Structures are given as C-alpha cells and as structure tokens.
Amino acid sequence: MGLFEEGYPRDLRGYAGNPPHAQWPNQARIAVQFVLNYEEGAENHVLHGDAGSEQFLSDIIGAASYPDKHMSMDSLYEYGSRAGFWRIHHEFQKRGLPLTVFGVAMALARHPEIVAAIKAADYDVVSHGWRWIHYQNMDINQEREHLHKAVHVLTDLFGKPPAGWYTGRDSPNTRQLVVEHGGFDYDSDYYGDDLPFWTEVAAAMAAVNRT
Predict the structure, then answer these.
(1) Shortest CA distance to 101 belongs to which of 89, 87, 113, 111?
(2) C-beta of residue 179 within 8 angstroms of C-beta of residue 201
(3) Which segment of the chain is annotated as a signal peptide (predicted)?
(4) Hey, what's the torsion of the CAs at 49, 53, 58, 59, to 10 degrees?
(5) Of the residues 42, 44, 90, 180, which has the maximum number of CB atoms within 10 A of its CB?
(6) Residues in CB range of 134: below 8 A, 6 or more apart
(7) How far apart are CA 50 and CA 44, in angstroms?
(8) 149 pLDDT exceeds 90?
C-alpha cells in the first residue's frame, strides 16, 4: 500500500478550497439553521434500565458512570428540561426567529408541556433517535427498532413525521438505516463541510451538516 493509495474510502479533500456557490434564495449570502437538542430524560440512567449513569456532554470533566443515580449528572440534564429549553424558547419567540428541535423521542414523550410549546411555536422537529445513548456497537436490528420507534412516537406527539434525522451518537449502520426507512428530507449526522450535499448510500440522501 502506497503512502497516497488509490481508493481510500474517506473524502478528505472536499472541494479542495473551491466550494461551489450555494445559490441561496433571495441572493442570501448564508443559510443558518438554529438547532436546539432536546435529550433530557432519555440519557443513560439506571431508571431507564441502563447499567450505569450518563458520562457524555456534561460540565463534569472525566465523568464516571455509576451503577446508581448520579445526582450531579441528573441535575445537569434536568436543567435543560426545567429551565434551559424555556429560556431559549422565550428568546426565539420574542425575536420571531425560526427554530429546529432535534428531539429524542423518549425525552419529549416525558414532557408534554414542551411538546405543546413546540407545536404552538410551529418549530420544525427532527428525530434525534429513541434514546440519547451510544449506538456504535448496537446490533443493527436493535438500532432499526429504535429508529422506527422514534419516528412512531414523534409522529404521534406532533401529528406529522419528523422532517429529518440526527442520531448524534451514531453507528456505521445509521445512515443505511435512515435511507432504508425513508421519509426524511435530510440527515444531519455529518460535521465535515459548510454546505449541504447529496450522498449515495442505497439511495440518494441529502446531508445537512452540523457546524
């Protein structure tokens, strides 16, 4: 294998410094999607049948997982549902700005007041999966089951299917399963560009990048 072998499957080059003009509507120079992730109540927790407490995305550096309730971790996540969502929601409403909610289905199902606020504000809803857990090593059939359950629950909560998909802690099988299910306008489980793009899996799929 040479140092610069042919057929390397990752695209590290992109547009090589010459991205195309996006041609946004109304001659806009940039398109911005404001996103709020809603995950509280779907993270790793012994109350959810998990072996231990959450470790990911907290203010606790080097957080350990304990086979019991982790009171500090619990409170960090609970801030989002008790206060954080409402602060952001009120500011966006005050300014008349659009918002997209990347909602974990289990989390939203636990908080009907937030569901009602999202519906009243007519925010776009993207499926953020059934659980806020790592899917990297999950069996593909179980991940497929979680995907279908997330879409079913969100459709039931909001009266229409989610506009897009974003697992966040995805697996090598996630995009294949998203395309297999179908019905999404885009997939946001990619961080590697400034512009949305089409990609081929088993069928064409639009990717809207998280930056």
Answers:
(1) 89
(2) yes
(3) none
(4) 160
(5) 42
(6) 56, 169
(7) 6
(8) yes
Strand order across the 100-103 sheet: 35-38, 100-103, 124-127, 164-165, 186-187, 204-207, 197-200
Residue with tokens 């946001």: 188
User: Hey, what are 117's tokens?
Assistant: 């606020």
The full set of domains in the chain, from first to last, is: 26-207 (3.20.20.370)
Instruction: Decide the pairing of beta strands 186-187 and 164-165.
Output: parallel
Segment among 42-56, 61-75, 125-139, 196-210 with least mean pLDDT: 196-210
Distance CA 143, CA 153 (A): 15
